[in-house]
Amino acid sequence: MTNPAIAAHALRKSYGDKTVLDGIDITVPEGTIFSLLGPNGAGKTTAVKILSTLISPDGGQARVAGHDLTTDPQAVRATIGVTGQFSAVDGLITGEENMLLMADLHHLPKAEGHRVTTELLERFDLVEAAKKPASTYSGGMKRRLDIAMTLVGDPRIIFLDEPTTGLDPRSRHTMWQIIRELVATGTTVFLTTQYLEEADELADRIAVLNNGKIAAEGTAEELKRLIPGGHVRLRFTDPIAYRSAALALTDITHDDETLSLQIPSDGTQNNLRFILDRLDTAGIEADELTVHTPDLDDVFFALTDGTGTPNQPKEAVR
Amino acid sequence: MSSLSLAVRDSNTMLRRNLLHARRYPSLTLNLLLTPVMLLLLFVYIFGNAMSGGAGRSAYIAYLVPGILLMTIGSTVIGTAVSVSTDMSEGIIARFRTMAIHRGSILVGHVIGSVIQSVMSVVLVGAVGVAIGFRSHHATVLDWLAAFGLIVLFALALTWIAVGMGLVSPTAEAASNNAMPLILLPLLSSAFVPLHSMPGWFQPIAHYQPFTPAIETLRGLLLGTHIGNNWWIALAWCLGLTVLGYRWSTSTFNQDPK
């Protein structure tokens, strides 16, 4: 059996009397995408900071690429690339200079450094902006430059801390494409996100982090099955159809204002067929039908129900 | 790669980064030059008659310039404190910390860059001094070399202190405030008026603070005045502040970032 890319056991970190990570275990097999999902303040960034050697844990052990975090951080650093939540680019110099700086710090020969720089700037669609100061870049461009810089050293393991937070939908999809390409070449990706959708799109495995603890772990499908909160929403324009639908279906939530009904649903084919059959039998046609799968709020509330610590504000310090 | 050649290579890379910043954005450095230049012109042309005590303008210029030159270093390193503090708040430093590079190179790059900037600033302010009539008639080549060495050592010492100040300052404004004593200290030295014209109780303070011995040594080297024990007090200050600033900066930098 090969070593996992990341293996952490009982990681703990506190700032003052505030426990940010309360003993988390993480295993990420090589060549997979692992996503740490959680709200602001859950401890995601702290986990990334510890695993990427930026800060040291108060307790627990972790091995990254087989190297111990505490005893051999320099060996860990040689195999990883990190793109933090706040863009780690030098805004005062140009995109190209940022890339060459990385090449120099990875001790690439000059020609090689230029080759890699040109290649990555092209791959990330930054050729036009290459000679402009990075501070003038848009959010999406900065993030692309950030990842391009991370890739200069050809890292085997990449940490991405909320890589799409604050990006517009197009940039977000570009970023997802980039992340998929990374894994296609065998790179391991450790991703944090607040969006279930993102974890769903990308990750092989997802761990939900809440108040410094892993509340649940599994594939996206496994997690969603754990969680209630999925529903089907029917919208009507005809008040009569709306009322008859309300009579034909059970366990519904009304919204008389918008003439819409909400029916709990796990989103499976059988369940949808059941609802549609009911409507057909009653001869009702809805103007719009939407299926809502659980989102992060549902996941969060479901997984922390009764176990969450009520006194801790949601946007506590990371 | 051996750890020494790694350290040299990474420091060199970091130095080039800092010099690139300085070249792209020279306004901060140039602004900081204004203070010593303005004080030089102010004291020569406005207060000159009162200050020189009738000895004449050119004599007072000669007296003033060595102090102004060292004050220029104090002023330049305020910029160092500000740029270190700004730099530390940038994500790029977090990136450096997660790379397999020589950790000290980040600070060393700042320090060497700042010393180079200090020396260039001293040359510029010196040129203003020469333009308004400063002349060194007595200095030999050896004296000039020693003066250059003193300026470099003094810049190195103040830079390490400024780097420490920059590291502990949460914002650029705080860094600028914290580093303020470095430009105020020369006002309490023998830069503008001789020690014996100060109140008796204050003279020892003025005499033994870092600037006065360095100023007296530079004066002696350039103008042939009596240096006495000032040269080794100046040297002790330079070495002491360098070691102190180095220790303070590296231990602060090696702590986990917030």
Automatic annotation (TrEMBL), chain A:
SMART domains named in the record: AAA
The organism of origin for this protein: Streptomyces monashensis
The keyword Translocase is annotated on this UniProt entry: yes
Keyword Isomerase among record annotations: no
Its EC number(s): 7.6.2.2
Domain of life where this protein originates: Bacteria
Protein name: ABC-type xenobiotic transporter
Membrane topology annotation: Peripheral membrane protein
Keywords associated with the record: Antibiotic resistance, ATP-binding, Cell membrane, Membrane, Nucleotide-binding, Translocase, Transport
From TrEMBL, chain B:
ABC transmembrane type-2 domain span: 27-256
UniProt keyword terms in alphabetical order: Antibiotic resistance, Cell membrane, Membrane, Transmembrane, Transmembrane helix, Transport
UniProt cross-references to Pfam families, sorted A to Z: ABC2_membrane (PF01061)
Cellular component terms per the entry's GO annotation: ATP-binding cassette (ABC) transporter complex
Annotated PROSITE patterns: ABC_TM2 (PS51012)
Primary location group: membrane
Membrane topology: Multi-pass membrane protein
MF terms in GO: ABC-type transporter activity
GO terms for biological process, alphabetical: response to antibiotic
Protein's name in the database: Transport permease protein
Subcellular location: Cell membrane; Membrane
Organism encoding this protein: Streptomyces monashensis
Family per similarity comment: Belongs to the ABC-2 integral membrane protein family.
Tagged with keyword DNA-binding: no
Transmembrane segments: 25-48, 60-85, 106-132, 144-168, 180-202, 231-249
Listed InterPro entries: ABC2_TM (IPR013525), ABC2_TM_bact-type (IPR047817), ABC_2_transport (IPR000412), Nod_factor_ABC_transporter (IPR051784)
